[in-house]
Design goal:
The chain is of the alpha+beta class and 237 residues long. The strands form three sheets. It has a six-stranded antiparallel beta sheet. Helix 2 packs across helix 3. The longest helix has 14 residues. The chain is elongated. The chain starts with 7 loop residues before the first helix and ends with a strand.
Length: 237
């Protein structure tokens, strides 16, 4: 049996979905206008209109009167009772996770602003890192981490900071027994807005500490999430 030829509507849809999948069109990007798609494919305006209407109904694009159509921004819906990494979050919404290192240094417990949380004494050494976490290349979160040097006998591999820190910790044989996370809505500083490439001032801040046992913190991470891309769910189930 011969394969059925795709309809004109399906050809346009396949093209747009492919562009989104390949990252050529990212969350928040404007897609070609109806007139541009008519010119590109030579199909009727109504066919193009119906295709975009269907994609909007399915939540793949958002249509704004007078402005155009844009790739939908998919928020992460995080259950607060389950420990998941940023990498897990990105995979859950079909985005490719990434990271760029902004700052790295070794500090003493005396200079650590979260020394009471991570339970560091004044002379203990900590790795301090600042990273921008991305999804499909889009800045989504700003992370500041304080990690106890004593857990890494051979030092910290900076190459690991381009990916999941949680995976790196696990590969070092460090067993994370539990975590504590606090959440708060905060106003972004001009520097944070610049690093995240946003104009909105609302951020969702979490302070999360991983423990090797009930009394021994491994790492405390302060993360500033874009509030338009992160949601937290509280459930008793």
């Amino acid at each position: 049996m011969a394969n059925k030829e795709p309809s004109k509507k399906q050809i346009i849809e396949n093209y747009l979905l492919s562009e989104i999948s390949k990252g050529n069109l990212r969350a928040g990007d404007q897609i070609p206008s109806e007139a541009e798609l008519v010119e590109k494919f030579g199909f009727g305006r109504q066919t193009i209109h119906n295709c975009l209407k269907d994609l909007a109904t399915r939540g793949i694009i958002e249509r704004t009167p007078g402005k155009g159509s844009f790739v939908s921004k998919k928020p992460v819906d995080r259950n607060i009772t389950i420990k998941k990494s940023f990498t897990d979050d990105m995979h859950s919404i079909g985005m490719t996770p990434g990271a760029s290192l902004i700052e790295y240094k070794v500090i003493s417990g005396k200079d650590c602003p979260v020394k009471d949380i991570i339970k560091a004494n004044d002379t203990e050494l900590l790795y301090y890192t600042v990273r921008i976490r991305t999804g499909n290349g889009i800045p989504i979160a700003l992370q500041q981490s304080y990690t106890r040097c004593s857990f890494f006998k051979n030092g910290l591999d900076l190459n690991a900071l381009s990916g999941s820190f949680d995976s790196y910790i696990a590969k070092q044989g460090i067993d994370v027994k539990g975590f504590v996370t606090k959440i708060k809505a905060v106003e972004a500083t001009p520097e944070q807005m610049s690093l995240l490439g946003i104009s909105e001032k609302a951020l969702l801040r979490t302070i999360s500490t991983k423990y090797s046992d009930e009394n021994t913190p491994i790492q405390t991470t302060i993360t500033y999430y874009r509030s338009d891309l992160y949601e937290y769910t509280f459930s008793s189930f």
